[in-house]
Design goal:
alpha/beta; about 40% helix; about 15% strand; globular; binds zinc ion
Length: about 260
């Protein structure tokens, strides 16, 4: 069984094809996915969907670092929502200086709030970092995020950044980006990263992997990500499948960590 550690199946383009998306997962041996929260406003919609398919979907709660014009979460609110059955993580959270090139202070504050909530409720973090690796790692260290652990989702940084994330006890999750021809440096990271610390994801509906580039991505296509990693490492597909699934269940559990 494969697992999509990060998707957004509650987004309209996938939610309106819910049955088809689930059937494709089943046909491709993808047995579970985390439907990742991006705002408090969308959380009721997300949890309603997850509740109908708890055998396949888990949820996370958080406010995406690039989102503006949305309710600002405080620690108490995140902790309260994280107690909802089916919620296994806090996020996605982090820093995104690609969409906010002025690197605003509110992003770092929002990120710190999520880390504190994750530590308080004993759930791992799902971290989004774009064009902000140094600040992301610095804040993870300053807030002692090693205490709750988590994953660097859609990892697309250098080996040096990966080494620092691993040193904090974090996992590295690869998306369809690793299948792109021009992702030379990332392919090297995927070939090198410790087998017991990697996850796979789609970030669907975005970032469809080769050979589906440009289409609406879906959790079933996490298979192409795992196939590429197996190819890059020169190991059978089953090795990557088993390792990433074991890693996933070591990091995420419905009961939370102690
Ligand atoms: Zn993200
Ligand atoms: Zn995402």
């Amino acid at each position: 069984m494969l697992i999509d550690s990060h998707c957004h199946v509650d987004f309209p383009e996938l939610a309106e094809r819910e049955d088809e998306v689930l059937a494709a997962m089943s046909a491709n041996g993808v047995g579970r996915a985390i439907c990742v929260g991006v705002s408090l406003e969308d959380f009721p919609r997300l949890i309603a969907m997850v509740d109908c398919h708890r055998d396949v979907y888990w949820a996370s709660v958080g406010v995406h670092p690039a989102h503006t014009d949305c309710a600002e979460p405080d620690e108490a609110r995140l902790i309260e929502l994280a107690a909802t059955p089916g919620v296994v993580a806090i996020g996605e959270t982090g820093l995104d200086y690609h969409w906010h090139k002025d690197a605003p202070e509110w992003q770092r504050e929002r990120f710190r709030t999520h880390i504190r909530a994750a530590k308080a409720c004993g759930k791992p973090l799902i971290v989004h970092s774009r064009a902000a690796a140094a600040d992301t790692l610095r804040i993870l260290r300053e807030e002692d995020a090693a205490a709750c652990g988590g994953v660097m989702h859609c990892f697309s940084e250098s080996r040096e950044v990966a080494e620092q994330a691993l040193a904090l006890g974090f996992y590295i999750s690869f998306s369809g980006v690793v299948t792109f021809k021009n992702a030379r440096e990332l392919k090297e990271v995927a070939a090198w990263a410790p087998l017991d610390r990697i996850l796979v994801e789609t970030d669907s509906p975005y970032l469809a992997p080769t050979p589906h580039r440009g289409q609406t991505n879906q959790p079933a296509w996490v298979k192409h990500v795992a196939e590429e990693i197996a190819f890059l490492r020169g190991v059978p597909f089953a090795v990557v499948e088993q390792a990433t699934t074991e890693n996933f269940f070591r990091l995420f559990t419905e009961a939370g960590h102690d």
